[in-house]
Design a protein that fits this description.
503 residues; alpha/beta; Rossmann fold; 19 helices; 18 strands; 20% strand; globular; binds adenosine-5'-diphosphate
């Protein structure tokens, strides 16, 4: 298979800057593509504060790209970071990206997000044109890079190195579409002839995700079930009709994990390491978390866990509706998350009321996340929708059995105890109701209290192949398909038949 030059353009990637699963994917899929023999460069904004916090060493490159946007010239020096053998090109624009948040202050969005990411998209295209000899694939992710396929086709065809690149646009979450007032079209020089309902216009406004969907050569989303769901009014976020128009280029590929990084047998942040067949360390992790969190130290009490953005999508209301009942039944809860302040307050209040049973850490903390994945018995993911979800993959990898709503990638990656007992790695519930969630949790608790059943489920979860291997191959095949020259249309040879003169 020919080696491809692939450029990922995204707004976050581990270990440089992360708010959620997008960062995990953009930081790990390129490793798997490299292992298949391809060359991958990742272009990100230069988030100065995050790079410092995450100890990322960077080097200034000789190029500075000048860009006019919103009646102002922006100078954008380029930097490079080499992390675990991967090359990142970073676009500096401190006025726009040297901030505490990636997209906004806690729970909010910056007012100038369109300027930030439209400028980033343009500079990223120019950077891609200068960093690589010839780019085969430009792989863009979520609304922040949705304008790229459109800009490439309409305004960047004079850059020889990228002009022929094929674009892949991955929707990691359709709920965030990047919708902004139309006056930005002129302030940013966006192509006006695509501003109509079949283009990037959305009820009189700019919709960055529509630009990506319209113009990309291929659209992917992060699980086969979500790829189907987004064509329905329930999950389509008002784009189901538009997506249906483009469904011939839409496919769902389930996410993987960097299984070397997420490995309970070697993870240095844990109190003890463990693996399938060598499970003793997991009990130590549970004990260490109980101690650190001020919970009763008890190996037998079920420890329910949740690590999540606190947003409506994640079904935190379903958890809150059940939490007191579960605590009254004697279970423990360890929760890590931040987001909507009403949820933060409700969880803090509950943790204060049950200090020996409930721990809530409000914030974002990767090491603590690892410790909770490792310590927990049951991992809760009651999402209203979930494009893929990485939490449940990490939980299974750490022997923490997921109870999930049967939607999107949760349905595709967790095998339900009720459907195939002998292969199950967790528990599903269908209705987005507190009652259905409670029934599934009770089922998980009863399995937990039957050690022979529990150890079988846990072993299957620990042994699940959550690596990128299969999915990376699917992406690579898709790239190759896009690059295949279109078959030439056969021209039928026609022999000129002389019509006999009529008698
Ligand atoms: P989403 O991308 O919608 O937030 P995913 O399940 O796909 O959800 O990915 C979430 C990622 O973010 C996982 O790696 C999870 O461990 C991590 N994460 C979520 N909240 C926190 C937090 N408060 N602290 C540390 N990591 C978190």
């Amino acid at each position: 298979m020919a080696q491809l030059n692939i450029v990922f353009i995204a707004s976050e990637a581990t270990p440089l800057a992360k708010t959620g699963g997008l960062a995990d994917v953009v930081g790990s899929l390129p490793h798997a593509l490299k292992q298949l023999g391809h060359d991958v460069t990742i272009i990100l904004p230069f988030y100065r504060q995050h790079l410092i916090k995450n100890n990322i060493q960077t080097q200034a490159l000789p190029q500075t790209i000048e860009m006019w946007a919103d009646h102002k010239q922006h100078l954008c020096p380029l930097h490079e970071a080499k992390v675990d053998g991967l090359r990142f090109a970073l676009i500096e624009q401190d006025d726009l990206f040297d901030r505490e948040g990636l997209y906004g202050p806690a729970g909010g969005a910056y007012d100038d997000n369109l300027l930030r990411f439209a400028l980033f998209d343009r500079v990223a295209l120019e950077a891609a044109a200068t960093l690589n000899k010839r780019v085969d694939i430009l792989h863009c992710h979520d609304w922040q890079t949705g304008l790229i396929p459109l800009l490439l086709k309409t305004q960047y065809q004079h850059y020889a190195n990228i002009a022929k690149a094929k674009t892949v646009y991955t929707i990691h979450n359709l709920a965030y579409q990047g919708v902004f007032p139309a006056d930005w079209i002129h302030r940013l020089g966006l192509p006006t002839h695509h501003f109509h309902p079949d283009g990037y216009e959305f009820y009189g406004q700019i919709n960055c995700m529509k630009a990506g969907i319209e113009s990309a050569d291929m659209i992917t989303t992060v699980s086969p079930t979500y790829a189907q769901e987004i064509l329905t009014p329930e999950y389509g976020c008002n784009l189901e009709g538009f997506l249906k128009q483009h469904s011939q280029k839409l496919t769902g590929i389930v996410n993987g994990l960097d299984i070397d990084d997420w490995n309970p047998a070697t993870d240095k942040t844990l109190a003890a390491n463990f693996a399938a067949g060598k499970i003793a360390g997991k009990a130590k992790c549970k004990q260490a978390l109980q101690q650190q969190a001020g919970l009763d130290i008890d190996a037998k009490v079920p420890l329910l866990t949740l690590i999540s953005r606190l947003a409506e999508q994640k079904g935190i209301d379903l958890l809150l509706a059940n939490a007191t009942t579960w605590l009254e039944r004697g279970y423990q809860l360890a929760i890590l998350g931040s987001g909507e302040s009403a949820d933060e307050h409700a969880l803090s209040k509950l943790a204060k009321a049950y200090p020996k049973q409930m721990y809530f850490f409000c914030g974002f903390d990767e090491n603590l996340a690892r410790q909770i994945y490792a310590a927990g018995d049951i991992f809760l993911m009651p999402s209203r929708f979930e494009p893929c979800g990485l939490g449940q993959l990490m939980a299974m990898r750490y022997g923490n059995i997921p109870v999930v709503r049967a939607t999107g990638g949760l349905k595709d990656t967790v095998i339900d105890y009720n459907q195939v007992k002998s292969k199950s790695t967790g528990f599903h519930f269908e209705a987005a109701s507190a009652q259905a969630f409670d029934v599934a949790v009770e089922q998980a608790i009863s399995a937990f209290q039957t050690p022979t059943i529990w150890s079988r489920i846990r072993n299957r979860a620990l042994n699940r192949d959550s690596s990128w291997q299969a999915s990376a191959q699917t992406y690579a095949d898709l790239y190759q398909t896009l690059l295949k020259p279109a078959p030439k249309k056969k021209v039928r040879k026609t022999t000129s038949r002389k019509t006999k003169p009529r008698k």
